[in-house]
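Known limitations

C-alpha cells in this collection are predictions and should be treated as such. Users comparing against experimental data should check residue numbering before alignment. To illustrate the layout, the record for Ester cyclase is reproduced below. The input appears on top and the generated C-alpha cells appear beneath it.
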Amino acid sequence: MTFLERPFAAESPRETRTYPNEIMEVDAIPQQNERIVHDYVTALWQDHEFDRVPEFVDDAFTYTDPMLSEPVRGPREFREYLRATEAAFPDFHVLPESVVADDDVVLVEWTLTGTHDGPLEGIPPTGRQLILRGMSTVRLEGGKLTTGRTYWDTADGNAQLGLEFPAVVGQLPKLAYRKLTGRR
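Generated C-alpha cells:
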C-alpha cells in the first residue's frame, strides 16, 4: 500500500494511551503533518493546482533542489518554480513511495515521472521520458511548510534526458536548432 492509499492516523491532536501505573498523552502532531504533506503532494505535485500554494507554504518558505542555483523563497517564487516545472514537463507526476513523520519534520521518498516537452533552465525540450527517484525533507510550523529540501541524482536525470557527455554532443545540433527556431 502506498502513502496516498493508506488511511491516516487519529484526527484529534492528542490521544491517550494507558500504560501500567500511568496515563500518557501522545502527541499526534506527526500524523497531522503527514496529512498536510499528503494534501500538499496531491494538490501541487499531482493535480498541478498551483494557486493553492499559499494554503500549504508559509510566507518564509524556502525550497532547495539540485537543479536550482539559488533557493526558491516564499509562495510566489515557489508557484513560479512549479509552473516552470510544468512548462518543462507538462505531464509531470510525483508518486510518494514512503513517508516518515517525526514532530515537525516529514520525509518523503518519491518517484517523479514526466516527458521533457518544454524548456528547462535554458535547455530546449528533448522529448525524452524522465523517471526519477528522490527524497524530500519538509519542515512544518503552524500547519504550513517552512522548508522543503529535495534530493535526487542529477547525473541520472541528465543521462535520461541525453544531457551527459558524450551523449549530449550528438544532441547539440538538434538542441541548438530548437533553441534558435523555437521548434520542437
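For this record: The chain is about 30% helix and 35% strand. Confidence is low (pLDDT under 50) at residues 1-20. Please report discrepancies through the issue tracker.
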